[in-house]
Design goal:
The structure is a single chain. The protein is mainly α. About 65% of the residues lie in helices and about 5% in strands. A hairpin with a 3-residue loop joins β2 and β3. The longest helix is centred in the middle third of the chain and has 24 residues. The N and C termini lie far apart (about 65 Å).
């Protein structure tokens, strides 16, 4: 076999590269709410919107289905995953459980390098405004990026890439909910103080306090969303789903 043939076999298929590009674009639109929950994803619309063929598009849709962001309904095609109060409560509880474990493991294996990374992540996040406009909420993409880094750093020393990946998947699914209610949550939350409290507990070596602060942080977010009647207009019950 000549060198050209070897290189041809070793090169990635164009369709696979294209599928990854479509996956990234679709994922961003799903997480941001541009593609709203429950929407039917018609193939013609998607091929025109993302300028791609059906093969890479289906590959991307199947990956997003595995991520829990899209539903494949038998004989009916693909839909943006719907939202519900019960799913929000379940996802939040699950995230609290698994990230509590990951955080405890990270703290048990703490190193000066990890603590420095956490301090840096907290410092950068704390110096970045949540909103680009002081008068009304205008999402700051840089804050979102640093927010994800901060939370990933908290659990990033746990020693399990599988656990970190699962936590990331849960974070993505919950991010959709948070985006829907972000304008209501923004004026009423002091998330910078919550992030600081978590970090203080971690650096003091108090795993119980760190887990309690992290759980309260996620639970408060869910409570705000559950009370948002714009998202769940059929229910005005403000009782806790986490009692």
């Amino acid at each position: 076999m000549n060198t050209t043939s070897v290189l041809r076999l070793a090169s990635p298929r164009p369709s696979s590269t294209q599928a990854s590009t479509v996956y990234d674009r679709l994922r961003e639109d799903l997480l941001s709410g541009k593609l709203e929950p429950g929407r039917k994803l018609q193939m013609r619309f998607l091929t025109e919107m993302y300028l791609t063929g059906q093969t890479p598009l289906r590959e991307a849709l199947n990956r997003l289905t595995a991520d829990g962001l899209i539903e494949c309904r038998e004989q009916r095609g693909f839909y943006v995953a719907d939202i519900s109060r019960s799913e929000l409560a379940e996802l939040t509880k699950t995230r609290c459980w698994v990230e509590s474990l990951a955080l405890r493991e990270s703290m048990a294996a703490a190193t000066p390098q990890w603590e420095e990374q956490l301090l840096l992540a907290q410092h950068r996040l704390g110096r970045t405004p949540r909103s680009l406009n002081a008068e009304h909420f205008e999402d700051n993409p840089e804050w979102e990026r640093l927010h994800r880094i901060y939370h990933r750093t908290l659990i990033g020393n746990c020693g399990s890439q599988s656990l970190i990946a699962f936590c990331g998947q849960l974070a993505d699914q919950l991010y959709r909910y948070r985006r829907l209610s972000i304008r209501k949550a923004f004026p009423s939350r002091h998330v910078a103080d919550e992030h600081q409290a978590i970090m203080n507990a971690v650096l003091s070596g108090d795993a119980d306090a760190a887990v309690t602060a992290l759980t309260a942080h996620y639970t408060q977010t869910a409570e705000v969303i559950l009370r948002d009647e714009r998202i769940f207009p059929e229910l005005s019950d403000t009782s806790s789903e986490f009692a």
